[in-house]
Amino acid sequence: MSAKTYLWAVFGFMLFGFGSVMLFNYIMDPFQQFRKATMYGVDFTGGDERMLIAGMARTYDYDSILTGSSTEEKFSIDLLSSILHLKKPLKFVMAGETSYDLYRALRLAFAVHKNIKTVVYAINPLALMPNYNQADLEMVGNISFSFPDYLYRTDNRFTQLLTYLFSSRVSEKSLFYWHSIRDHKDRRGPCSHYNTMFAPYCKPGKADLKNVISDYLNFSKPSSWTQQILFSRQVVLQETQKHLESLIKSHPKTHFIFYYVPHSVLYYYVYKAKNTPFKDSLEEMFLQTPQAVSLRLLNYPNVELHDLRTMPMVSNLNAYNDPTHFDFGYSDVVLEAIASKKYQLNPSNVSTYTDTLRKLILDYHIPKALSNQLLERKKSF
């Protein structure tokens, strides 16, 4: 091919490309105008967390991150800014998470953003155990809880894009949005917007004592998956090293604020190691292992650690929707406890907090009124 022919071919290819783009924009312009007219934005739905966070990590403007599980879904962006004084916070929360999920999200964030000043990390000791919840029937086969590893890679972006576009999850969601546009409706709920992203609801008043009782009865049965957890302190410490310590060491200029989630006191009766007496299970899963994790994390100068598991609210069942999740209305209480540093750990007081939690759990007596309801419920089984 002569140089002249080659130049004409290049020119023709560029002209074709330009014309194709112009034609595409012409065809799509009405759609874009309609989208602007409907003011439709991102739908921050809880079930889409793992799919959305990868894109948020790459494209949003942020300098701090809250990461955790369903207990952190309720924190609003406004509260994170006003109470913890985070300038540009973003939420990387995933219901039913494991430390692996959060590690992949944070690793991607650090790869694409060089100015992350603060990471607030909610620790659930069980989530440091890989697949601790694999026997949960709600999660088995539920695509919302599967982790799309390919989205969190920084190489093979073209293959990543194709995999995303042709995935069943994207196709299903596209149809949902198409119906929204066709019907001229914004189908997002009030809690699917930016400020309350991923929250199951966005107003206080949803605390449900009856549901706390029901879940306690159901999940404390010997047959429940929550009583069959395969737990290993050695594995937890290995995961801590891989997923927490590696990030801390790799980013010494980032301030890591870790805290143990304030589950209700009944939580520790609901989750138990398989074939292990209650007291031994409590000691291993929620006392000695977290203590070992704490001492590991406190070795690093850029780490701040709080143990909120002995807050007064944990004995107030009216503050919870179930044994695990506190009500939306208590979000500010939890964040203010972190900001106050009242429950901050250091190497010399870790064992004291462990002893306090042990005593709180073992000395807890179910209120008489609640005890009567429990007896009535047990009769119905």
What is the fold's blueprint, element by element?
Layout: H1 3-38, H2 49-59, E1 64-68, H3 77-84, E2 89-93, H4 99-112, E3 118-123, H5 157-165, H6 168-182, H7 209-219, H8 233-250, E4 255-260, H9 267-270, H10 278-297, E5 303-307, H11 331-340, H12 350-362, H13 368-379
Parallel strand pairs: 1-2, 1-3, 3-4, 4-5
Helix pairs in contact: 2-4, 3-11, 4-8, 8-10, 10-12
Task: Count every helix, treating DSSP H or I runs of 4 or more residues as helices.
Answer: 13
Structural class: alpha/beta
Q: What is the string of SSEs from the N terminus onward?
A: HHEHEHEHHHHEHHEHHH
Overall pLDDT, averaged? 84
Anisotropy-based shape: globular
Main sheet strand line-up: 2-1-3-4-5
Unreliable parts: 13-39
For the largest beta-sheet, the strand count, sense and barrel status come to: 5 strands, parallel
User: Radius of gyration from the CA trace?
Assistant: 24 Å
Strand content: 5-15%
Task: Give helix % range.
Answer: 40-55%
**Oligomeric organization of the protein chains:** single chain
Number of strands: 5
Head-to-tail CA distance between termini? 84 Å
Give a summary of the structure in a few sentences.
This protein has 381 residues and is α/β, with parallel strands linked by helices.
Can you characterise this structure?
It is built from 13 helices and five strands. It is α/β, with parallel strands linked by helices and 381 residues long. α3 (77-84) links the parallel β1 (64-68) and β2. It is globular.
